[in-house]
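ERR on first pass: missing label on line 2. Operator R.T. fixed the label and resubmitted. Corrected input:
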Amino acid sequence: MDDLWQALHALARAEKDWLVATRRDLHRHPETAWAEYRTASLAAATLEEAGFALRMGGDALNAQARPRRLDPEQVQREQARARAQGADPRWLARMPDGLTGLWGDLILDDETADESGSPRGPLIAFRFDMDANAGLNECRDADHAPAAQGFASCRDDAMHACGHDGHVALGLGLARVLAALRPELARRFRGRIRLIFQPAEEEGEGAPGMVAAGAVDGVSRLFGIHLSMQAGKSGALVCGTTHFLATTNFEVFFDGRAAHAGLAPEEGRNALLAACTACTALLGIARHGEGATRINVGEMRGGEAPNAIPAQAWFRGETRGESSDINGFMMAEVRRMVQGAARMHGCTARLLCQSYCPGASSHPELAALVERVARDMGGFDPILPRAEFWASEDCCWFMNKVEEDGGQAAYLQLGADRPSGHHTARFTFDENVLPRGVELLARLALVSLARRDA
Ligand SMILES: [Zn+2]
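pass 2 clean. output:
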């Protein structure tokens, strides 16, 4: 294998300029949840050119399994915006109705494997998220590298502040490196390598529809990856992330009765007061003896004037739990307290769950394999066998499905220096880590395939 590892190393190094240019292009053109048309078009074009068999639109994302969709006017607007920013209309036509997820398969099976009934090689999958952060205005100061070097976000209501621009670049660089080695790979290995590009991670909405469309059916090994995060510095690597929290996003509508605040306040039923009572009650939900919990109310609105009793109020928040059961406990408490607070103030309340994401953990055996492969490859320091995440990631949908079906999943974190935290206006990351990331992922793919000489 040494010749192959050397070829891979050289190829990944040679991709550096392409990786950086691609990351910067994506960074300059951020796209938020369910509007990743330009990004997905670039992914589709690159995968096709690299010889991957594509699945797009309704074939890659089950529209019914989406927790949320953009309305038709938003879809039209976002498609037009993507076209104006250079997205190829040929690909846009294949992503109707905000179905911006896709995957590509590099097939190294024997061509006859299907008809003869002989077993196909293993299916190895990698998952990359594509969306940017909504509502963030990227820093324009001269000491912020993307601004200084001319690739800061072209809009003021969205930016790549989590590194997903780098994730897409990693995935597409991986496709190009594997494509360059394809004749050699086909000679030595059997199996298929699937690269999954997922929309809407930031809202935790993109994964369930892709799982429902079969994105990881039959996958024996799945790798997810995030830049920086807990791996922090360039050179560091987390081999297996554990303790992803299950989470639910919810919103509550309170209805009361309006009244003159001076003349007849006693006739009013104050919906804003009910919302405030509910909010303080929720932050007092008991801790759970079997694991960690989180609760947050992050946005609230209500009322219209200082001299009127508010008839309507609204807030939204989230729960998290170390397991799906513990998160379920939190949501049951939320429901009970919201109803109690509404009744207390003579109002009614309606609670809607906007999205749900399960928890998960990397499989220890697969994390150990990542560690071995990284040590063989060299260049990583420190190599951390595991890290506890204590946040949520909708990659857990894919991870759980793979493990339910008897496969294994691991979520890596690739260290990259960053001047500022994730989800802040000064976020960016050290692009020098991208070739090393591509090389590691390609190695993981190859050691997971079946060898023809074995
Ligand atoms: Zn992220």
